[in-house]
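re the bet — no i am not wrong, look at it urself. input seq straight from the record:
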Amino acid sequence: MTPGKRRKAEGYKVACFVSPHGFGHAARTSAIMSAMHERNPKISFEIFTTVPQWFFAESLSGPFCHHSVHTDVGLVQKGPLCADLPGTVKRLDQFLPFDPGQLERMAKKLNALGCAMVLCDISPLGIAVAGKAGIPSVLVENFTWDWVYQEYVSEKKGFMPHIKRLEALFSSADFHIQTSPVCAQKMVQLRTAPISRRPRNRSTAVRKRLGVSDFTPLVLITMGGIPKHHGFIDQLLRQKGIFFVAPGGGTNQRVSENVMLLPHHSQFFHPDLVHAADAVVGKVGYSTLAEVYHAGVPYGYIKRKRFQESEVLSGYIERYMAGFAIDETEFENGKWILRAFELLDLPTKTEQRENGADTVADFILALLDEDPK
């Protein structure tokens, strides 16, 4: 789409279509929206996703409206580390191709709201709606679903028509941004450093609320926003020299000696917990990696089997971060706990690192500020 089709809206209003696959895409989009709002306090956002509203209320300081819309399929999950391939194909068959009537209704809604741009992470629906509404679309990704689904074609032929359709949709975005670690490099307008939400509170204050001193090693156990009841709590309790915090590890906040289990939605902002920790253990995913990268602490990461992104993220950790891989079985049975002090002994990074959210915010605001031709 040419700049001549770009329309300005008073105070700038941006529609954000966010994949609900985990919380990683919502975290990355929230970081971008926050950086945009810091630069232009008059900007506001219309967020389309099934990620719960509380996640954005917790993450954003600027104004937004939440619209519960099914924007993406991603992968249907059996658990944090296991995908349901037949279930995914079934959902894709229901989701694609898009209903022309739905696209028309949503396009009219975006025009009525006065949206000047559509930001998509990595929702194909947003790109299609933007095209119908005649406003520019910006795709933000470190992978796209057509690339992910290629892994499963030999097992499930039903992925193939969706791969072709999604590849065309993602290619039709007016502006394309890739964020490190990038899975499949393409010709794009912008490539950035990892994008992460910033912490809100100082580590000492967060530790005080947790009830742990600044001198006690703190290990955060996180599964990337997916609730997970761990079977190794008794083994954690035997590691008296370490305090463990597990977001999503319980239905209520509970502390037993040196272990704190937090509910899925707790009073603690996840980036605050990462920056207060001395090491992080958990599923390797984009938003967790980005938060750990910017916190500069060691990362004991569990790769997802048969998920191509995991290999790319793991390679990035090995090159640019401190940490080591933990086998999924060893994580589940708690054997990794014997290596907790080894993880804590790895060096931390203290230098300030560029946050890709700032780069993306500058890029998008420059597009919005261009005068129509």
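see?? Residues 3-196+356-369 form a domain with the Rossmann fold fold (CATH 3.40.50.2000). told u. also DSSP finds 15 helices and 16 strands in the chain. so pay up
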